[in-house]
UniProtKB/TrEMBL annotation:
Disordered: region residues: 136-160
Protein name: RNI-like protein
Basic and acidic residues: bias regions: 137-154
Organism per entry: Cladocopium goreaui
Domain of life: Eukaryota
Pfam families, sorted: LRR_6 (PF13516)
């Protein structure tokens, strides 16, 4: 069932929810951008407590807020059929993220959950990290707004707070050390910087499940990428790395080239829009020549 961008609102969501209570054939529900609000989310949550057929529910951009997220969390404690849930752009905040994290500790079916752009803040990130440490079935986590939604005292801070991003990333990185099912890390445009990628690199020294890392637009320099390079000398699970549009220079490129010469798993890396220069490009060229039989792909655009 695909009903995205139809302005169905809370009443429409409630009607669909009633139908779901008796329907046993619908597997996919795409209700993104429908302004269902907390009331609509609550109605759908009640339906999910009964329905056992829906596997994939996409509710992005619906302004469900903390109340809606909390209702869905309660449903997930009971529901055992939903595998994928997209709740991006829903203003769920830390409260909503905490409720969902608690549900994930109990739920045994959800494998993919998207909480991007929800102002979950440090508390929300910590809650998700704690859930990841205990849960072994979640394979993909997306948190595109680690540097948004910070709270200071009791007031929400407006605007981006990039200097806090590395601090918030540390709990998630710590969770990756013990979680063995997450396969994809998407942290593009979070200003995690060198400190953030260092925390991630440390986690990847022991993690064996992550295969794809997206670190575009993160102000990562030579210091951070050198830490990642050291990890790649030992890591054998990561296959795809995107470092597009960072601040990587010649030294960072050389460090990566050295690591890639011994690494046996990475098959694709994007270093477009960095400052690696001719010297850095030359070092990476040697990697391409060495690994061309493996189908190694290097992307560099300026």
């Amino acid at each position: 069932m695909i009903l995205a961008s139809n302005r169905i609102g809370p009443e429409g969501a409630q009607a669909l929810a009633e139908a779901l209570k008796i329907n046993s054939s619908v597997r996919l529900m795409i209700l993104a951008s429908n302004r269902i609000g907390p009331e609509g989310a609550q109605a759908l949550a009640e339906a999910l407590k009964i329905n056992s057929s829906v596997r994939d529910m996409k509710l992005a951009s619906n302004r469900i807020e903390p109340e809606g997220a909390q209702a869905l969390a309660e449903a997930l404690k009971i529901n055992s059929s939903v595998r994928d849930m997209n709740l991006a752009f829903n203003e769920i905040g830390a409260e909503g993220a905490q409720a969902l994290a608690e549900a994930l500790k109990i739920n045994s079916s959800v494998r993919d959950m998207n909480l991007a752009f929800n102002e979950i803040g440090a508390e929300g990130a910590q809650a998700v990290a704690d859930a990841l440490q205990r849960k072994t079935s979640v394979r993909d986590t997306t948190a595109d707004d680690l540097d948004d939604g910070a709270k200071e005292s009791n007031d929400q801070v407006s605007g981006r707070r990039p200097f806090e991003a590395p601090v918030r990333l540390k709990p998630l990185a710590g969770a990756l050390k013990t979680n063995i099912s997450v396969t994809s890390i998407k942290l593009d445009d979070n200003s995690i910087g060198d400190e953030g990628v260092k925390a991630l690199a440390e986690a990847l020294k022991t993690n064996t499940s992550v295969t794809s890392i997206d670190l575009r637009y993160n102000s990562i320099g030579d210091e951070g990428v050198k830490a990642l390079a050291e990890t790649l000398k030992k890591n054998t699970s990561v296959t795809n790395i995107n470092l597009d549009d960072n601040s990587i220079g010649v030294e960072g490129a050389k460090a990566l080239a050295e690591a890639l010469m011994t690494n046996t798993s990475v098959t694709s890396i994007d270093l477009s829009w960095n400052a690696i220069g001719d010297e850095g490009a030359q070092a990476l060229k040697q990697v391409i020549e060495e690994k061309k039989k493996m189908g190694f792909e290097l992307r560099i655009e300026f």
